[in-house]
Structure to design on (761 residues):
């Protein structure tokens, strides 16, 4: 081959490598890709192609050479040039105070600057770069010798295969943690389950397992992440003066360095950092088990030195362990608010996540079977943040000879009603409904909860007693409680019945969203309750809404819609709501803003009339006289006016003659659907160009809705009545504007009159 072609190809290969490295960095380290995946793939294939055709151009640091080499039969042992140390732990604030005191005394300093960062819950590794190229990657092992996992580490896209500085340092060991992000762990386990392979217990085990694969092609399929946190054994590099500057250097070399790192001063700085990371912990995409404090000044670090195998200048401040081992003494079931039966493990008390845990959920019958957890087993219990403790797994090599399996009871342990598990569903339920005291208690607790009616002081113990003594059957009964009815209950003397009565009284003033949530409608959580309140604006409208109408609410599907309709159809629930209202529970009607103005054609499209697609909807929107006339049109008229096919025309007539559909339309109209453009263009709309003044309260329409409707039809709404006013729309308690209108002889409309003028129902 001729020389210039060769140099051109070599140049292209170099360009491609640099471009791919940069995009790798943007994607895997910065999490901010700048080109589409397909474009990246194209570059990558081009490089692979080039290297296949010109093997002499291959360099070990080429991004196309990340996955290479044959499976190993074992890992080679390697000796770390600088040992990989461990850290001393601190659990209590006092230990941190003592750490800071020791350092200040040793250094003779009044206040010390610290570099602080999360303590990653992964696997420590060491990466050796010689003359700028990654030549070795090793596990920590015993700290002095580890295993050579170079081939596996090269598959991790976040690990640079070469350094950026030119000329590069002769040698450098970068230390850091391999881990797997929570989402990648979930995905890996889902894939393992599909393939019928063993599941990993946690992301750390998954990372460790992926790193210890003899076949690098397997490691390459696992999404591993890496954070660099130290640099050792540098040769030919001017080291910065502080740990934080050293991390910045690593950033310039394209290593992933955790953004949560910080520099703080003094012991208060350390503890503040500990708490702020503690609060963030659950929302971080990876697991951490504490934070690490390091003296920032590297000279001072050297001055402090080491004891045994840990540095004196650093400490790991650990979070309370989130997982612990204990024994399952029994498996009982618990009855939830909607009757759901949850198996619960009664445990030998164990300290986990900062509290003593004696119960942990097993979720449902299938979970118990899947995890194969038996009475008598030793298990791993997890309590993360404020989440309910759960049993993670059984420790099988500790399983005693005699264990008992969990059997789902046939009847509710609280009320004796049948337990039913519908086919295809994971959850078994007590069929007792509100006859079941357990369900009643839960309903009351839910009602009183902080995010619901927020009745302070009404906790589990009290709900138990109120239900057991028959003083409260439904949430409405709470509003009949007085001091004498509470005073003789346990724990009431010191808690003060008066305070509770006051809290109950205060809860009466609430919001519609809270009230809807407090009812405990199955499948209606806080967010859905808020959407419902915003969409319907009033409880009556919500209670009248059909399944179909409900599905116009953002994020509500057929299942939730069905459960809402069922709930309000239940006589008992209607009664409770009635009693709550007559007890004085009240809220302000919500402003509604969810129904966006739409074109008539779009609205007709929403209705999902069988056989009516977007183009037929356009034509229907043109029906002379507007939507109201369209609803009454017969098939002949439709065919004549709109040139519809016989089938389409029949389908439209069928649709509009179905009372259920008319009801949906009526409800949507009532919610204030407004039509833009085509509706306003509807010939000779009597609203067009006219000025309206609104006064008083209309029975159904809010002022905003009325205004929107008028404006959508090309009218104007003014604030005060004058000779230029064309119509005054008056509702209950209309005041001086109505009087002025009468004096000036301006036509006055009620809500019905307005709707008629608007050509709506
Ligand atoms: S520095 C000389 N920083 O904790 C100190 N270690 O108990 C070397 N670890 O095996 C460690 N996050 O795997 C350091 N931000 C962090 C860390 C961290 C996790 C692990 C590391 C080491 C263990 C020490």
């Amino acid at each position: 081959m001729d020389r210039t072609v060769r140099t051109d190809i070599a140049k292209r290969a170099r360009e491609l490598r640099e471009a791919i490295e940069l995009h790798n960095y943007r994607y895997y380290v910065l999490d901010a890709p700048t080109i589409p995946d397909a474009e990246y793939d194209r570059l990558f294939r081009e490089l692979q192609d080039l290297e296949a055709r010109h093997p002499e151009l291959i360099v070990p640091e080429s991004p196309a050479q990340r996955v290479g080499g044959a499976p190993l039969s074992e890992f080679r042992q390697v000796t770390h040039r600088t040992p990989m140390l461990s850290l001393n732990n601190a659990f209590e604030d006092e230990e941190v105070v003592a750490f800071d005191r020791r350092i200040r005394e040793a250094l003779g300093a009044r206040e010390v600057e610290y570099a602080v960062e999360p303590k990653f819950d992964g696997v420590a590794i060491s990466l050796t770069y010689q003359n700028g190229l990654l030549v070795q990657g090793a596990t920590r092992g015993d700290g002095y010798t580890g295993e050579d996992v170079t081939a596996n580490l090269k598959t991790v896209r976040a690990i640079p295969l070469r350094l950026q500085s030119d000329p590069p340092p002769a040698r450098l060991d970068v230390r850091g943690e391999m881990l797997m992000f929570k989402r990648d762990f979930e995905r890996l386990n889902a894939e393992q389950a599909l393939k019928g392979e063993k599941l990993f217990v946690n992301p750390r085990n998954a990372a460790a397992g992926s790193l210890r694969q003899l076949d690098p092609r397997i490691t390459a399929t696992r999404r591993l992440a890496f954070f660099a946190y130290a640099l050792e054994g540098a040769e030919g590099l001017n080291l910065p003066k502080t740990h934080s500057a050293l991390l910045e250097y690593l950033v310039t070399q394209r290593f992933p360095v955790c953004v949560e790192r910080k520099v703080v001063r003094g012991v208060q700085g350390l503890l503040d950092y500990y708490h702020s990371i503690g609060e963030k912990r659950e929302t971080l995409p990876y697991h951490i088990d504490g934070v690490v404090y390091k003296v920032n000044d590297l000279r001072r670090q050297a001055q402090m030195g080491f004891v045994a195998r840990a540095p004196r200048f650093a400490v790991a401040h650990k979070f309370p362990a989130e997982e612990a081992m204990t024994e399952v003494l029994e498996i009982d079931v618990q009855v939830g608010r909607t009757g759901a039966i949850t198996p619960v493990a009664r445990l030998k008390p164990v300290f986990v996540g900062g509290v003593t845990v004696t119960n942990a959920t097993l979720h449902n019958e299938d979970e118990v079977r899947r995890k194969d957890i038996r009475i008598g087993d030793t298990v791993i219990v997890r309590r993360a943040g404020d989440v309910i403790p759960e049993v993670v797994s059984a420790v099988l090599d500790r399983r005693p000879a005699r264990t008992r399996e969990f059997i789902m009871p046939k009847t509710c342990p609280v009320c004796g009603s049948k337990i039913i598990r519908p086919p295809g569903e994971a959850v078994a339920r007590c069929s007792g409904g509100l006859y079941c005291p357990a369900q009643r208690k839960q309903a009351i607790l839910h009602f009183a909860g902080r995010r619901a009616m927020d009745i302070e002081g009404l906790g589990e113990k009290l709900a138990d007693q109120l239900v057991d003594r028959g003083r409260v059957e439904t949430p409405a009964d709470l509003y009949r409680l007085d001091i004498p009815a509470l005073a003789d209950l346990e724990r009431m003397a010191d808690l003060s019945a008066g305070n509770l009565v006051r809290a109950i009284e205060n809860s009466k003033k609430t919001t519609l969203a809270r009230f809807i949530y407090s009812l405990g409608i199955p499948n209606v959580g806080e967010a859905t309750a808020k959407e419902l309140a915003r969409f319907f604006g009033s409880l009556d409208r919500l209670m009248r809404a059909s399944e179909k109408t409900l599905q116009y609410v953002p994020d509500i599907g057929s299942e939730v819609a069905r459960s809402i309709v069922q709930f309000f159809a239940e006589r008992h629930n209607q009664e409770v709501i009635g009693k709550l209202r007559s007890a004085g529970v009240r809220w302000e009607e919500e402003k509604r803003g969810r129904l966006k103005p739409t074109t008539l054609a779009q609205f007709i499209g929403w209705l999902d009339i069988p056989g009516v697609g977007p183009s037929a909807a356009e034509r229907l929107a043109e029906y002379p006289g507007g939507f109201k006339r369209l609803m009454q049109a017969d098939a002949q008229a439709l065919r004549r006016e709109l040139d519809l096919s016989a089938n389409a025309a029949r389908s439209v007539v069928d649709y509009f003659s179905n009372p259920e559909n008319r009801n949906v339309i009526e409800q949507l109209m009532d919610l204030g659907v407004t039509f833009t453009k085509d509706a306003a263009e509807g010939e000779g709309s009597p609203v067009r160009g006219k000025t309206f003044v609104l006064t008083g309260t209309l029975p159904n329409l809010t002022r905003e809705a009325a205004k929107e409707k008028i404006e959508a039809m090309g009218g104007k709404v003014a604030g005060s009545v004058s000779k230029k006013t064309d119509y005054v729309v008056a509702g209950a308690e209309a005041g001086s504007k109505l009087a002025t209108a009468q004096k000036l002889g301006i036509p006055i409309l009620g809500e019905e009159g307005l709707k008629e003028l608007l050509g709506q129902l």
Notes: The radius of gyration is 35 Å.
